[in-house]
Design a protein that fits this description.
The chain is of the alpha+beta class and 433 residues long. A hairpin with a 2-residue loop joins strand 1 and strand 2. The relative contact order is 0.17.
Amino acid sequence: MTAEIAILNTGAIHLAADSAVTIPGPRGQKVYNTVNKLFTLSKYRPIGIMVFGNAAIMGIPWETIIKVYRRQFGKKMFNTVKEYSEDFIRFLDDNNKLVHPTVQEDFYGIIVSGLMDEIRKEVDGNVRALIEKSGTGVTDAQVQQELGRTISEWRKTWEAKFKRLPHLPEDQTKNVLVAYRKKVDLARKERFKNHNLADAAVSDLDAIVEMVATHDVFSGIQSGVVVAGFGENEIFPPVEAYTTEGIYLGRLKYRREEKQSGSIDYKTGARIIPFAQVEEAITFITSVSPSFQNAIKGYVTKLFQEYPKQVAEIVPSATPQAKEELLKKLQQGGTQVVQDFIKRMDNHIQVNQVQPIISAVQSLPKEELAVMAEALVYLTSLRRRMSLDTETVGGPVDVAVISKGDGFVWIKRKHYFSKDLNPQFFANYYLEG
């Protein structure tokens, strides 16, 4: 994981990213604090890119991909940041040269196997519950029935919840299953080897794994990509954010993050956009942690659902029908009270906490906002360090400021080598080819 921040005002965009990467191993997780996550997307234009989540896509480090793209991009320019981001996504999409088809197939097999593991674990849990309830065990027929029911429910849930990604061709879903059939069958046999799945269950599983490559459902093996800066025709700095997972049949699976993308204008003169681990940044901006806000809202909602029941029960002379009508009216009134409470609380936070900070960001100079961006990342790092959890945020914080006039300027940047010992690196930076 990581913590990254983009702070926008009318003068510039300020980017900050930590350096931690978590690598799983046979003895647990290992954290290294030396990874680069913030880069120039072009050597010649005021445009930068940050990555978070998985440090690689299908085994290829993001740093390598970005630098390969940057070399072929050369001195080209676009009118908008959105065009820059779409060109980078296009570089990844429909690109079998970047990731070999065999690697794509293997990666799909890993995702499908993990998904089937989740389904099997749910089935195992449901079967254990049936055994505990019966006290005498369950028959093979009952296990088969539970398998079919659980897999069917997964299919219904996915079909209702997850939509097709619009950039992928219509026939991609069927083509993926045909091309990667061996991986799907192997995963199914390994995960359900002790069960003879009915034809309906196999069909439901196929429908689920088809959606893995084409629908808006992303696995834990995903990465975030943030492109920010200025296009040739842009006065104010926009941000374009994407979630990516992998490449299947040469097509990148990605989603544009609408809430974290966009620009500012004369009316909205500043924005603070956190990425990845956002809890501490939001707490700083709102003065209330998101988890605490959710706890308060949940508790108040539950209170006004349960309290009317107690009120209705203590009316001694009421008939059951009258109590039911009273309970219905009290719960309706309680729902309105809760909605009003949440609206007032959100408005209080917005007016008294968020707006003053946004107003300050609108007018603060570049130097101060660069410090602010670094501090928001460091807050997350400090919180992780002071907890007993794995320090998934940490290391040096890279900071850059991008402005229309000065372009991409590093405020803080780590190097894995000594500048004095490697003058050729800086001498060759702008060489073509």
